[in-house]
Specification:
Blueprint lengths: L2 E5 L10 H4 L7 E4 L17 H16 L5 E6 L1 H12 L4 E7 L16 H7 L25 E6 L7 H10 L3 E6 L6 H4 L1 H13 L6
Parallel strand pairs: 1-2, 1-3, 3-4, 4-5, 5-6
Length: 210
């Protein structure tokens, strides 16, 4: 059985990925995660860092799968950093990755990224302050992520420039990149009709009729 976990970006809404999830096969099990205290999501006193979000995902994986088949992670932006961390820590629990417009856990300094934090604070004034207090993305050893990975990028996104996607494609040992003509950092939801077939094909490889 195919089980998919959808991870949003700092907007944090479980609904970010529903336009895609609703278009994927009905027989697949889908879990839409949100990030407590970020975006407009209610806060949780137990969540105060990226490590806490990673622990949240790990706990959900354990609850849902209980040691059964690995799951697929479909992640947007900051969620891609969390997905990369989980894939590195638990390679036997993650079967495939889809990373959209993310850092993926690499050093962003060489890529001239736009600072998203001022606009984020205006859009989500009640979001927990830790999310914008500093650059929290370490330089992960992404070369160790062996699972097949689909990279989805917009060609004119100032927050996650296409050069980041191309860089990740060279560093991830089993990755391929697909580029959309867009400047929208949230293109994965906005272009669900175009994005979904690529994700469906990637996650369905080697599944036969499942």
């Amino acid at each position: 059985m195919t089980t998919v976990f959808f991870l949003p970006g700092t907007g944090a809404s479980p609904g970010f990925w529903t336009p895609v999830g609703e278009r994927l096969p009905g027989g697949w099990t889908k879990h839409y995660l949100g990030w407590p205290g970020l975006g407009d999501e209610p806060a949780d006193p137990a969540i105060g860092s990226y490590d806490d979000l990673i622990a949240l995902v790990e706990a959900r994986l354990d609850d849902v799968k209980a040691g059964e088949e690995p799951v697929d992670l479909v992640a947007q932006s900051m969620g891609g950093f969390i997905a990369a961390r989980v894939a590195l820590a638990h390679p036997k629990k993650v079967r495939r990755l889809v990373l959209a417009a993310t850092s993926g856990g690499i050093d962003l300094a060489p890529f001239g990224v736009s600072d998203w934090r001022p606009d984020y604070r205006k859009a989500y004034p009640n979001a927990q302050p830790w999310i914008t207090e500093g650059r929290a993305v370490p330089n992960l050893p992404v070369e160790k992520i062996a699972c097949p990975t689909l990279l989805l990028w917009a060609d004119a996104d100032p927050i996650s420039p296409l050069a980041i996607g191309r860089h990740l494609e060279t560093r991830l040992p089993n990755a391929r990149l697909h580029v959309f003509a867009s400047a929208d950092h949230r293109f994965a939801a906005a272009l669900a009709d175009e994005v979904t077939p690529l994700i469906a094909a990637h996650l369905a490889e080697h599944l036969g009729d499942r």
